[in-house]
Amino acid sequence: MSPVRAALSAFDMAKLGNRIRLERVQRQLRLEQLSARSDVSRSMLSAVERGEKVPTVLVLDRIATGLGTSIARLLGDEARSRVVVLRHDEQEVVKDPGGWQRRILSPVLPGVEFELMRTTIGAGVDAGVFNPHAAGSREYVAVERGTLKLTIDGTPYLLRAGDSIYYDGDCHHGFSNPGRGDCVYYLAMDVADRSQSGHGTTTSRHNGRRQKQRR
Q1: Which helix (H) or strand (E) holds 73?
Q2: Tell me, what's the pLDDT at 54?
């Protein structure tokens, strides 16, 4: 089994599953619909919701993307204060057995789908390709240390310490570290409301991109 964190208790697994189910039901989505949106099998989604399986970070991100939200909302509770301080030991950290981890630096706020994270990818590690968010989503990346290979819809961008990049979030985006040491980068993600984004248009546009890439 590939854990999201170094260790999850049965209670944590149940809490994660219940949170995913709640977010799905609030959006009036059946398991089949979320499966289609997230590229995660129905059986896997059902097992995660029941607390029987712990998804990898990539799978959890795909579930969050399918729901139109962030990993932070699936793991943490909403903060309703005007000022929120997250001490280092209070921040959620999700670890992938493939050799990378994500530290969530932003609080979960009511009605706000924004996430600020600090990611560390080990030398030679490929964190995988993440699914497109809804049209209108935005992502910003700044590299603190090492070398990051960011691939956007098949086009690679090599970023080094001090470099930054912006891209529309409705794209396939992959992160890998081609260097010999750890790569540390910050990512700010502003997720648009899928129900208001004309999702069908986005899908069509991605199909067009893929067709161009095949030519």
Answers
A1: helix 71-75
A2: 86
159 bridge partner residues: 148
Tell me the pTM.
Answer: 0.82
**How far is 185 from 160, CA to CA, in rounded Å?**
10
Q: Which of 53, 75, 97 is the last residue of a domain?
A: 75
Q: 135 and 204, same structural domain?
A: yes
The domain of 58 spans 10-75
| Contact by Cβ (8 Å): 136, 192 | yes
- pLDDT of res. 3: 45
Measured torsion, CA atoms of residues 124, 127, 132, 133, in degrees rounded to the nearest 10: -130
Whole-angstrom distance, CA of residue 178 vs CA of residue 165 = 18
- The H or E element containing residue 155 is strand 155-160
Where do we find the tokens 């896997």? Answer: 44
**Helix ranges restricted to H, 120-198:** none
Clarify whether residues 104 and 67 are in a common domain: no
Nearest to 124 by CA among 150, 103, 143, 98: 98
3-state secondary structure of 51: coil
Single residue among 49, 75, 101 that ends a domain in this structure: 75
Q: Which residues of the chain have pLDDT under 70?
A: 1-11, 194-215
